[in-house]
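Thread: "does anyone have the structure for this chain?"

Original post by V.I.:
We have the sequence but no experimental structure in hand. Need at least a predicted one for the grant figures.
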Amino acid sequence: MDSWGAQVVEGRLTLDDPDAFKAWVATMDGQRVTVTVTKGQRSHAQNRYYQGVVVPVLAEQTGYEQPEMHEVLKAEFLPYGHASTATLTTAEFTEYVERICRWAAEKLDCVIPPPRA
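Reply from O.Q.:
Generated one for you, tokens below.
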């Protein structure tokens, strides 16, 4: 099964890479296919920010190694019912990171730089 990233904007599906999707669909010419739309997981940009900024800044601040810091954050801030950040939707992951940043500012006096626009 292949998977393609997209976002719904004003009721329309907008593909992250429409050219690659069209090329892939062209390889399916004449075949019957099933299209399934599911609520997406966190975006690559969100993951890069979390793994490249949030976790390293907090690891440096607390003395944890980065993998340990990620585990600590999951244990403290992961929403109930989720075993991994990989299962979070884009909105849930945004809330997860925002809770971490508020905690860091309030409890550790540590300001995590915001993501670049």
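V.I.: this helps a lot. Residues 41 and 88 are 6 Å apart (CA to CA).
O.Q.: and The chain has two domains: 1-38, 44-107.
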